[in-house]
Specification:
This protein has a 3-stranded antiparallel β-sheet with strand order 3-4-7. A two-stranded parallel sheet has the order 1-2. The chain has a two-stranded antiparallel ribbon with strand order 5-6. Among the domains are: 171 residues, 3-Layer(aba) Sandwich (Rossmann fold), CATH 3.40.50; 31 residues, no CATH class. It has 12 helices and 13 strands. 31% of the residues are buried. With 362 residues, the protein is an alpha/beta fold. It is elongated. A hairpin with a 5-residue loop joins strand 12 and strand 13.
């Protein structure tokens, strides 16, 4: 792979639960890519979901990333040139860019209720058409809009998708991608309560924080043309995107609780070492030239988006246990001593030099 200059990657989780394997792998791949090219790894907390987000999940997330050794060089508790790094604290920044879109007539208020939108979606699906916003509020006159505002209705803000365009980009994992704007439909960028929608805040912050490369799950692939349109309208630079294949169980279906849909906290409590998780996850959907135990620098040196697979990555419990065995064999005695709880078996046993237990003579 050709050397990349001035790389900045990011991990941008929503604090709506504990960190799971899929999240960790995304964070790991972005951290490895930054380390591979001497760049910066940024952490941003996307905490605009006021109903599901919890401060305790933010604290748990930071702790779990540090336990894994995925240390960010810019973000919460570290600082940096693009503060703040919690989206809930960036409202005044977003307001400036909403105004820029409004000045260019690239957005409009939408007064459609959730029930009206659900009915429209159901009607389109019944007719065999892909659901998309029909543009009802795009056709309102200024007087109609003002009348609704006077009645106390709180609108969302929709981005006006241009007609007849083809959005193209080179995906770092999946190669050339093409999307027709006519298939997208106008989308919400600000909720009725004034908080930013994902499409807007995620794209704007990547540009404003100078992120150059984004590796994220393939479930975001259809979000990318929307975000590229937004960034073009805002005259902001777009990062390079790469969309990772999702993790599935051994049977090809969704992960079950037993087969990998576990939080980092549960795996840590279960005795797994962080190095075991890193060595396993670095290979889950990514191929190294040699399948051997590696420390952090080795994992980073051998990491390249060229070796990321497009097929779903299958979680294998036996492989995770294999890397756990390797982690134990390569761990320094101080780490193993802490891992075992710092205790020897038996009342007269005590640690000897090198961390081994010995028994005092009776």
């Amino acid at each position: 792979m050709t050397a990349i200059q001035n790389v900045k990657t990011r991990f941008a989780p929503s604090p709506t639960g504990l960190l799971h394997l899929g999240n960790v792998r995304t964070a790991l791949f972005n951290a490895l890519l930054a380390q591979r090219w001497g760049g910066r790894f940024l952490l941003r907390i996307e905490d605009t979901d006021q109903e599901r987000g919890r401060p305790e999940y933010v604290a748990a997330l930071l702790e779990d990333l540090r336990w894994l050794g995925l240390d960010w060089r810019e973000g919460p508790e570290i600082g940096g040139p693009h503060q703040p790094y919690l989206q809930s604290e960036r409202a005044t920044i977003y307001a400036r860019y909403y105004q820029r879109l409004e000045a260019g007539e690239r957005v409009y208020p939408c007064f459609c209720t959730p029930a009206e939108l659900a009915l429209s979606r159901k009607t389109q699906l019944a007719a065999g058409r892909p659901p998309r916003y029909t543009g009802t509020c795009a056709r309102l006159s200024e007087a109609d809009r003002q009348a609704r505002l006077d009645r106390g209705l709180q609108p969302t803000l929709r981005f006006r998708v241009p007609v007849g365009q083809m959005i193209e980009f080179e995906d770092m994992v999946r190669g050339p991608q093409r999307f027709a704007s006519d298939d997208i439909g106008d989308f919400v960028i600000r909720r009725a309560d004034g908080t930013p929608q994902f499409f807007f805040a995620n794209a704007a912050d990547d540009a404003l924080m100078e992120v150059t490369h984004v590796l994220r799950g393939e479930d975001h692939l259809t979000n990318t043309p929307r975000q590229l349109l937004l960034l073009e309208a805002l005259e902001l630079p777009a990062p390079r995107y790469g969309h990772l294949a999702l993790i599935v169980g051994a049977d090809g279906g969704p992960l079950s609780k037993r087969l990998g849909d576990l939080s980092v906290r549960e795996l840590r409590t279960g005795g797994y070492l962080p190095e075991a998780l890193l060595n396993y996850l670095a290979r889950l959907g990514h191929a190294y030239e040699r399948d051997k135990w590696m420390e952090w620098n080795g994992l980073a040196t051998g990491f390249t988006p060229d070796h990321l697979g497009r097929a779903p990555a299958r979680f294998d419990e036996a492989q995770l246990l294999h890397w756990q065995t390797e982690a134990i064999q390569h761990a320094p005695w101080e780490q193993l001593w802490a891992w075992m709880g710092g205790r020897c078996v038996g009342a007269s046993a005590r640690p000897a030099e090198g961390g081994f237990c010995r028994r005092d003579p009776a």
